[in-house]
Amino acid sequence: MGTLFSSSLFPFSFFAVTGLVIVYFILRFDKMQRKKLREILLETEDVQPLFMQKNTGEKLHALKKICREDTGKHIEVAKKLELIVADYDKGNISLPDYNNRLNNLLAMVA
Questions:
Q1: 20 φ/ψ angles, rounded to the nearest 5 degrees
Q2: Cα(1)–Cα(93) distance, rounded to whole angstroms?
Q3: How confident is the model at residue 18 (pLDDT cuts 50, 70, 90)?
């Protein structure tokens, strides 16, 4: 029995088996994480980007504040804003397109 522990084959085989077990658990954990990630991506596929929604809300608030003023240019912007908001509420335009249109309106009044 003493020769088993003193031979050079035992440390090599011990570390090889230990390494294989560690690699097995790493690959198993990776597979579980990939499965969870796929499930999360499928669940959140139709969710709008949160930061874009927040940014769009801020732009809309700024435009509504500007439209309360009584100048000729602002009345035109207010009419366009109503059309854009109505299109978005009906689902005719996507959030990125809605955001871009609000950018254009902000550029008009700036």
A1: -65, -40
A2: 78
A3: very high
